[in-house]
Amino acid sequence: MIIERHVSPDGVLTFVVEHVDDGVTLLGFEESAWHTHPNLLDREDGVTDEAATSAYIDRLLRSVSVVGIRRKGGVIVEIWIMDDPMFEADAHADDETLEMRYWNGRPWSI
Predict the structure, then answer these.
(1) What are phi and psi of 96, to 5 degrees?
(2) Which of 26, 52, 57, 95 would bridge with 41, disulfide CB 3.0–4.6 Å?
């Protein structure tokens, strides 16, 4: 069951928080298989999964986090929140393109 849905201002990205049948929470984009889980998010000691999830989503929606959009033939094949944009800038095959951007649509640059 989707409990949160956020659509980017340009309508390209839809980020969802979903509870699945076994009680697991998934954080990811509707347009992609990529996802993460609250227990995998970086956090200070003592921070709950709920607080870590809220902070993660807040960084995305405030256009702090960089989003990678990999396309093949113009079709989206994967969308993810990048851990290290400098390292991941080459994370695509020769027949693919990689758009690196923020939630608000602004391109990422060094």
Answers:
(1) -120, 160
(2) 52
Q: What is the pLDDT of residues 10-49, one digit of tens each?
A: 999 999 999 998 889 999 999 899 999 999 998 888 999 9
Structure tokens at 104: 């608000």
6, exposed or middle or buried, with CB in 10 Å at 0-12, 13-18, 19+? Answer: middle
What is the Cα Rg of the chain in Å?
A: 14
Give Cβ neighbours of residue 87 (< 8 Å, ≥ 6 apart): none
Contacts of 76 (CB under 8 A, 6+ apart): 31, 32, 69, 70
Q: What is the pTM of this model?
A: 0.92
CA distances from 73 to 19, 92, 98, 110 (A): 32, 13, 12, 26
